[in-house]
Write a structure and sequence with these properties.
Elements: H1 2-19, H2 21-31, H3 36-42, H4 50-58, H5 73-80, H6 82-95, E1 96-103, E2 114-118, H7 121-131, E3 158-162, E4 172-183, E5 189-206, E6 214-220, H8 223-247, H9 262-285, H10 289-312
Parallel strand pairs: 1-3
Antiparallel strand pairs: 1-6, 2-5, 3-4, 4-5, 5-6
């Protein structure tokens, strides 16, 4: 009966692999056995069919014990129904994940690296705990590999980056992997991260005695949801670009200076002075002495700031 029931789990796995390959194929590769024997059988071409992929992994599981009274129930159950075991493992250990949360609204895109500086006590605790199983040199700036030295294919040190408000169930977030980390003697840390999956927050709670560190259980998004969120992020980026382009001030020579560098800062100051001067002249023409005097004071203040800035250089 168990063998026949496992065939139903096999069909369920094949349907999931076909309908949601982003979730299930990756999950299957990550929870597959990592023994020496399995490494050669699970390294199939990306074009391998789903049945072949599944067969290659199931074949690495030990056969059913000859003595049914030997071993615990869980072990025997895994041997008898490998497809059921694989299905449950992917859901429990890959699609669903529980871990610490870093909460700060912001932008994050899959596979686009970014950096953070942790200084709050709760986030010092977060990075210290997720880095604890890893070698000491990885806590002093040595890059982390995408696979562990023991050959396993886990994602390495990961945590949940809740970059959308509110911090509550059903909000989107992302799972990020630590690529590089430097933990300072005082516990502060500089981390280099890469988002590996978009997720939904399933439940959120505050862990006791951590100074406010939250934990969450998340569910990974499927391919369609991931694509929709990527498009939404790109639309937000485009709207933001248009917003700043429309409001970008021109410098004296008519060239536009992009913000973010020294020339942009000085160019913006020149533009602000020109704008205030024009307002001052308009106000004086309208015989609005009070407004004109106020603008003249503003011009003087900005010019003083600009002069001080040049003196510092």
């Amino acid at each position: 009966f168990s063998t026949h029931a496992d065939l139903l789990w096999r069909q369920a796995l094949l349907r999931c692999l076909h309908s949601e390959p982003l979730l299930w194929k990756k999950g299957l590769s990550q929870i597959a056995p990592t023994t020496t024997a399995s490494k050669s059988t699970t390294q199939l071409p990306s074009t391998a069919s789903n049945p072949d992929l599944l067969n290659s992994i199931v074949s690495t599981y030990p056969p059913q014990p000859a003595d049914n009274n030997t071993g615990n129930d869980t072990t025997r159950h895994e041997y008898i129904q490998p497809h059921k075991f694989l299905y449950r493992s992917i859901v429990t250990n890959h699609i669903r994940h529980t871990g610490p949360v870093f909460y700060m609204p912001g932008e994050a895109r899959l596979n686009v690296e970014f950096g953070l500086h942790f200084f709050e006590p709760r986030y010092r605790l977060l990075i210290a705990e997720i880095m604890r199983p890893y070698p000491e040199d990885t806590k002093r700036g040595h890059p982390l590999s995408s696979s562990n030295d023991n050959g396993s294919r886990d994602e390495g040190p990961v945590f949940i980056y809740a970059n959308h408000a509110p911090l509550a169930p059903e909000s989107p977030a992302c799972l990020v992997r630590v690529k590089q980390c430097f933990i300072h003697p005082n516990g502060r840390a500089d981390v280099f991260l890469v988002p590996v999956a978009y997720v939904w927050l399933e439940s959120v709670w505050e862990r006791e005695n951590t100074g406010g560190l939250c934990y969450a259980t998340i569910l990974r998004m499927g391919e369609k949801e991931t694509q929709m969120l990527e498009e939404e992020v790109e639309m937000m980026r485009e709207r933001r670009r248009r917003f700043f382009d429309e409001r970008r001030l021109e410098v004296n020579d008519g060239d536009q200076v992009a913000p973010g560098d020294g020339a942009g800062i000085r160019g913006s100051i020149h533009s602000i002075i020109q704008y205030l001067i024009s307002r001052h002249e308009d106000a004086m023409d309208a015989s609005n002495h009070d407004e004109g005097q106020e603008d003249q004071n503003s011009i003087n203040e900005v010019q003083e700031m600009f002069i001080d800035d040049n003196d510092d250089d």
